[in-house]
Design goal:
Layout: H1 23-32, E1 35-38, E2 47-50, H2 53-60, E3 66-67, H3 80-86, H4 98-104, H5 110-114, H6 117-131, E4 136-138, H7 139-144, H8 146-156, H9 163-174, H10 204-220, H11 226-231, H12 242-273, H13 275-283, H14 288-299, E5 304-309, E6 313-315, E7 318-320, E8 325-329, H15 330-333, H16 371-388, E9 389-394, E10 399-400, E11 409-411, E12 413-418
Parallel strand pairs: 2-8
Antiparallel strand pairs: 1-2, 3-5, 4-12, 5-8, 6-7, 9-12, 10-11
Helix pairs in contact: 6-16, 8-9, 8-12, 9-12, 10-12, 12-14, 12-16, 14-16
This protein binds protoporphyrin IX containing FE (HEM).
Length: 419
């Protein structure tokens, strides 16, 4: 891209993200305007773009000043009525947020997800046994898409027969600005009839219907799965309403599916572009733990989340007014050189504990509940790939999702040589 000047930057433009992550734009912002006013086309009001790691941590860690509840967590301006209908637990502030978080969190601690490791490894081994009979394939379609939904489905208690359909549906929701994936794009007037649905998507209803049937079933016959815990939970002495259950079922399916796929696919793309790093893992498999974190930092599967200022506040020397939209850009924070030396380098020897990334958020109440699960999935996949694959390279141009929200790959054609 040409030299980036502030007057030409518009992070609300999804096309900016199609040809590759716009890191040159973020580099300019972090240096020249780390708290940057990004105008938007009316009726949207514009937003503050927060691009430095430390400022992102400050915003996420202060839900009293930067609310998720007031205007939701997306760039969209939702009316109170729309937000009321669509609100999931990402869009609640403490203490109301805790009503969901505390019921779900115990199933996603490192210890709890560790129980799934053997099952997960078996799933991945079977997947690789099938896929690696060919040497050229689309990594997204063959591995990165089918694995995360099956893991999530297993833990939540969604039967196998729904998994492939949930991939299609959740893709349509999370990629609601890509005309190739969405049934109607959420920034078009065609989505108005669906404004009370998650992501303004006509496809949300089908996910809700799958969830509703499962909730009914588990009310009658509880099992050891997340759906059963949710449906029979009594947080603060009262059960969840049917609407709370349904909307948060959609949230879990969408939040845990495409994100993990994107970490795997973008991470493998990074290895294709940096074969020396693959060689390092072949020589020193003990680096795989750190490599999983580095894949997720480098990939940053979610571009942004939004908050709304509840009062006038100064950040990075700039005054943010009460009611303003404040948007944190995780992919930029993860390339902030003040936090990650030589930040654009994909480096599997980077010590994760010293350079904790913000791809899952950082320091706030909404820190990704699936972070340990997603990291485990990426690590086990990497272990099993390194055990089998001598080299991996691109066999064609990857295709990206049109979105300033999901940093997704539609396809990643690769060629492998086995060990
Ligand atoms: C590499 C994969 C993933 C990435 C990059 C990712 C990213 C994120 C981010 C950035 C947030 C918001 C953090 C904040 O606002 O402070 C979040 C929240 C969340 N994630 Fe993930 N996520 C991933 C995988 C998963 C998985 C596998 C699940 C399913 C178990 C999941 C479920 C959620 C939920 C339910 C929330 C909302 C938590 C809350 O509001 O308390 N995510 N995730």
């Amino acid at each position: 891209m040409d030299r980036v000047t502030l007057d030409r930057i518009d992070l609300s433009n999804h096309d900016l993200f199609v040809d590759g992550p716009p890191h040159a734009v973020f580099d300019t912002l972090r240096v020249e305007a780390p708290v940057f006013w990004n105008a938007e086309r009316p009726p949207r009001k514009g937003f503050w773009a927060i691009t430095r790691y430390q400022d992102i941590v400050t915003v996420l860690g202060d839900p009293t000043t930067f609310s998720s509840e007031l205007g939701g967590v997306t760039l969209e301006e939702q009316s109170a009525e729309e937000l009321g209908e669509r609100r999931n637990f990402l869009e609640l502030d403490p203490p109301r947020h805790g009503r969901f978080r505390k019921v779900l969190a115990p199933d996603f601690t490192p210890k709890a997800v560790g129980r799934w490791e053997a099952w997960l490894r078996d799933l991945i081994v079977r997947n690789l046994d099938e896929v690696l009979v060919t040497r050229e394939f689309d990594f997204v379609e063959a591995i990165a898409a089918p694995v995360p939904i099956r893991v999530l489905g297993h833990i939540m208690g969604v039967p196998d027969e729904h998994h492939d359909r949930l991939i299609v549906l959740s893709d349509r929701l999370i990629n609601s600005n890509d005309p190739e994936l969405a049934t109607v794009t959420s920034d078009s007037a065609d989505s108005d009839p669906y404004r009370f649905e998650p992501f303004r998507s006509p496809d949300a209803a089908e996910i809700v219907a799958i969830g509703r049937a499962l909730f009914d079933e588990r009310r009658r016959e509880p099992r050891e799965d997340v759906i059963s815990y949710l449906v029979n939970a009594s947080p603060d002495g009262g059960a969840y309403t049917q609407q709370e259950l349904e909307i948060n079922f959609v949230t879990m399916v969408v939040a845990g599916n495409e994100t993990t796929r994107s970490a795997m696919a973008n991470g493998i793309l990074a290895f294709c572009e940096n074969p020396d790093q693959w060689q390092l893992l072949l020589d020193q498999p003990e680096l795989i733990n750190a490599a999983a974190d580095e894949m997720i930092r480098y990939a940053s599967p979610v571009w942004h989340f939004r908050r709304t200022a509840t009062r006038d506040v100064t950040l990075g020397g700039v005054t943010i007014r009460e009611g303003d939209k404040v948007v944190v850009w995780f992919g930029s924070g993860n390339r902030d050189p003040s936090r990650f030396p030589d930040a654009h380098r994909f480096d599997v020897t980077r010590p994760p504990s010293k350079h904790t990334h913000c791809a899952f958020g950082r320091g706030g109440p909404h820190y990704c509940i699936g972070a340990h699960l997603a990291t485990l999935e990426v690590r086990v996949l990497l272990e099993e790939l390194v055990a089998r694959v001598q080299s991996i390279e691109l066999a064609g141009e990857p295709r990206r999702v049109r979105s300033n929200f999901a940093n997704g790959l539609k396809t990643l054609p690769v060629r492998v040589a086995l060990r």
